[in-house]
Amino acid sequence: MQNLFNVFMDFRGVLWDGVLETLYMTFASVTLAYAIGLPLGVLLVVTHSTGLMPNKIVHTALSGVVNTVRSIPFIILIVLLMPFTRLIVGTAIGNTAAIVALVVAAAPFIARMVETSLNEMDAGVIDAARSMGATNFQIICKVMLPESIPSLIRGFSITTIMLMSFSAMAGAVGAGGLGRIAIRYGYQRFNTDVMIITIMIIVVIVALLQFFFNTLAAKIDKRTT
After folding, report:
1. Are 118 and 125 in contact (CB under 8 A)?
2. Where are the domains of the chain?
3. CA atoms of 84 and 27, how far apart (whole Å)
4. Whole-structure pTM value
5. pLDDT tens digits, residue range 111-124?
6. How far apart, in Å, are the Cα atoms of 62 and each of 116, 118, 130, 194, 223?
7. Fold of 2-224
8. CB 35 within 8 Å of CB 103
9. 8 Å CB contact between 35 and 194
10. 149: closest CA among 210, 211, 221?
11. Rounded Cα gap, residues 61 and 44, in angstroms
12. How many other C-beta atoms can be found within 10 angstroms of the C-beta atom of residue 225?
């Protein structure tokens, strides 16, 4: 334990930079991924045969795209997206470049979670809104999404934690963060202590995030009050 503390003190500056880089990649990517995945999830629900605007062609096409992208391992996805990433941000390596792959990987996952959250709603609530003359857009924005907020928040926490692990994986292909530190200063230099410390930091961050989002969801969820 004393040795771990000494290693931590020796690498504290590098580790702090790694934490900041990891948080940057994680929260930037989860924000952009939700900007894409949330509308996709809503479309998957409303275009279903039992949805507000049934459309078999659109639903089948969206489901196909979502399932295809979700099935690609992240490390392979990073490599496949390198030309696209270079086109978007001007480089295929680094923290900002990793965000492109993280967003593409997370958006379909988010779409499915949003779909699941919205499908958990009581159909009677939607029928009541219809009987009061609400339009489809109003039902989506003022009924479906607000009623699903607790479930969406829990999904947000799952996605955030997933992207944090993916950002560490991106360290293997040139991204920064704790993943790069574990590989560069730990694995490549046969320094097990550095790898253990980076794992411990990630575990602590994940636990704090999980506690925060669970607490927030519980406070918002009307069913628990």
Report:
1. no
2. 2-224
3. 21
4. 0.86
5. 999 999 888 887 78
6. 15, 16, 26, 43, 32
7. MetI-like fold (1.10.3720)
8. no
9. no
10. 221
11. 10
12. 7
